[in-house]
Amino acid sequence: MSAITIPLPDSASSWILPYRGKVAMAGLIIAESAIFTIFVVAYLFYLGKSLTGPTPRDVLELPIFYTICLLSSSLTIHLAAKSLERNRGGLFLGLWLLTSALGGSFLYGTAREWLRLIYGHGLTISTNLFGTTYYSLVGLHAFHVTVGLIMLLLVAIFALAGRLSVKHSRRVEVLSMYWHFVDAVWVVVFTVVYVLGR
Amino acid sequence: MSMNAITISGVRLEEKPWVDTLHEWLTTVDHKRLGILYIIYALLLLIVAGIEALIIRIQLMHSHNNFVSPQVFNRMFTMHGTTMIFFVIMPVLFGFANYLVPLMIGARDMAFPRLNAFSFWLTALGGLLLYFSFLGGNGLYGAGNAPDVGWWAYAPLTARAFSTGHSSDYWTLALLVSGFGSIGTAINIIATVVCLRCPGMKLTRMPLMAWLNLVMSGMVLIAITPLSAAQIMLLVDRYLGGHFFDTQAGGSAVLWMHFFWIFGHPEVYILIIPAFAFMSEIVPVFSRKPIFGYPVMVAATIAIAFVSMSVWAHHMFTVGMNSYANSFFTITSMVIAVPTGIKIFNWLGTMWGGRIQFKTPMLFSIGFLFQFLIGGLTGVMQATAPFDWQLSLSYFVVAHFHYVIVGGIVFAVFAAFYYWYPKMTGRMLSEKLGKWHFWLFLIGFHLTFDVMHIPGLLGMPRRIYTYEPVRGWDTLNLIITIGAFIQGIAILVFVANLVVSYFNGAQAGNDPWDAWTLEWSVSSPPPAYNFAFIPVVASRRPLWDQKHPEDPDSRYE
After folding, report:
1. Is residue A12 part of a domain?
2. Contact residues on chain B for A20, CB-CB shorter than 8 A
3. Which of A88, B122, B237, B414 is within CB 3.0–4.6 Å of B181 for a Cys-Cys bond?
4. Domain limits at A163?
5. How large is the average pLDDT for residues B11-29?
6. What is the pLDDT of residues A93-108, one digit of tens each?
7. A139 CA to chain B: closest CA distance, Å?
8. Burial B272-307 (b: 16+ CB within 10 A, else e)
9. B104, B187, B231: which to substitute to probe chain A, counting the most A Cβ within 10 Å?
10. In whole angstroms, what is the distance from residue A34 CA to residue B288 CA?
11. Which among B225, B518, B538 has CB closest to A35?
12. Which residue of B has its CA nearest to A27?
């Protein structure tokens, strides 16, 4: 039961290890990247292999505005996390709500696009290979945005209730990592689906 | 626990009602209890999957046998494979990692205790879903209960048209759910090892058990997730009318093979690396020497992890790839033998000149060394594409991978049981029963799996329901079946040993093996908080330093 009593060469106070939240989120991001990689590979592999229409060239339009929304939310969440770290609660709340609004508008954009594709062009997940791979890949990403948005709103509720302070900034930082990841995935999805895939 | 529990005179602890104990175990977030839950869960399913293996062997005992119907036979080999990989070996390895890694690095628990419990219950639910298929698999169609598509479930067997009912859905969901559990555990192990090491426990001083489980967890993140992705695609195909693996709509059955084996081959290394970890802890202690070539051991493990990600298509030589792909996967599959060989030499180097104690854990370890070597060599044979064209999907392949999994991983797991059981329960396992277990299992193993290579070479295909008498496979198959039953008896001896020793085994004390890692510095079983004081370490063998203050390892580092 006794502890080991070998004196440490350097003092124990200098023994600082990384924050577990960040390490765990990095692990989750690696795992999620592998999942997305498989879906991207499937999308690229099946490009042009659909036996029936519609094809990506026929129906896809570049979602420039909503892409700008999502990508700029990476900047706002970064600034928000920094302002919480510097104990500027008001600025944090403003930037945080802005981030949530930008994320929400991206989801709205996806919903509009899907509505147009389903009712305007008759493209569903079971129409052809393009439909299957497109809805799976974009849907998987939208699912991750949704999860991120729910967490953003949870933090916003805590902030509005006055329950968020500087001591939570490390945790907010972890959520911010996830949001950056979701944005980075969109860059890949955008390139693959809307640029290369057309 | 009793010998170390604090007793206050005049105060008598009341016996807890069993419901309270049960409630404590079901809601526990303690890494040690979760570790034990993982291990017990794996042992239960080992019995189930073992019975399935025996049913397969009885059916193949002689030609034209009809012990079970062909349909039941298909279910048995599917359930046997799926259960053994996902619900026996994975959980038992995670169980040992859960129990030991925090203790070895001087931490009080895992980084995320609640995530740990969540991951375990996900895995448990996965196994439950898989076996619930025996009841619910029929669906409304009255077609087939348990999954019967083989453990790799090639398309289009899993398409709605060929797999009516819900058996394939239970298979998919079971693997998806337990896969999420594995990812949770992997993240937890990584965060624990990176963030919770006690002062002085630098990465270069960490026990190899912690190192190798760190590498294994990294592999889980990259290799289990492609399977999860493929299972999601399969669900999309089966439930939403998708066409990922639907050749009628331009989909590709070969893509499923790629996705499955991108998971499937690294998975083999995910299973074997913790077995390497057991070896790297047990062999030094019973050779009375520190591990030979610690840095090389770590480097070789990382090399295996990297190379294992690029060997998957050696499972697909017979599918028909171009010669460049064949060459590439032949070369990578052979290259991986190099770091693996380095490891074997390191264990031999550790034993060389040591005072070897032939206790049960060491016997199983030595068995591991030789059998894993032979299993690896037949692996190199099959890495050669032309040779594989002859023997792919034959009993030679079945013999090869059972040689690695049973002869390698299972032997290592038994070694780990005999080595750490005293720490987990406070009681020694019986050496006498242990030796019976070892020799019976060794004889059974070699009867079964040495002989199994021969019908493979003679052309007996795997997953075959029965065969013609004129083939001349009868005697060989009878020997294989007898060996399987001897292994079954050995497992019964093992289970008897676990139970009998729990009640009547000799008291273990803190450190029965005179070992050197931190888990042996606390009582057996350890208290809930592990360490009353967080230890401070100065070398790779902190307990050696404590026992030999006149000549500590730290002096030479």
Report:
1. no
2. 111-112, 191-192, 194-196
3. B122
4. 19-196
5. 87
6. 999 999 999 999 999 9
7. 12
8. bbbbbbbbbbbbbbbbebbbbbbebbbebbebbbeb
9. B187
10. 42
11. B225
12. B187
Domain annotation covers residue A9: no
pLDDT of residue B144: 65
Q: What is the 3-state secondary structure (H, E, C) of A40-79?
A: HHHHHHCCCCCCCCCCHHHHCCCCHHHHHHHHHHHHHHHH
Q: Cβ–Cβ of B111/A20 closer than 8 Å?
A: yes
In chain B, which among 452-471 make CB contacts under 8 A with chain A? none
Report ipTM (2 d.p.).
0.94
Q: Phi and psi at residue B536, in whole multiples of 5°?
A: -125, 130
Residue A12 has pLDDT above 70, yes or no: no
Q: Which residue has the higher pLDDT, B496 or A11?
A: B496
CA–centroid distance for B288 within its chain: 27
Q: Which residue has the tokens 């390490």?
A: A23
Q: Which of B222, B523, B538 sits opposite A9 (nearest CB)?
A: B538
Residue A13 inside a domain? The answer is no
Q: Which CATH number is A192's domain given? A: 1.20.120.80
pLDDT per position as a tens digit, B430-461:
999 999 999 999 999 999 999 999 999 999 99
How confident is the prediction for chain B on average, in pLDDT? 94
Smallest CA-to-CA distance from B160 within B172, B152, B174, B176 is with B172
Cβ of residue A55 closer than 8 Å to a chain B Cβ? no
Domain extents for chain B? 30-556
B299 and chain A in contact, CB less than 8 A:
no
The pLDDT score that the predictor gives to residue A40 is: 98
Residue A86 located in a structural domain: yes
A16 CB within 8 Å of a chain B CB? no
Can you read off the two tokens belonging to residue B332?
């990578």
For chain A, how many structural domains are there in total? 1
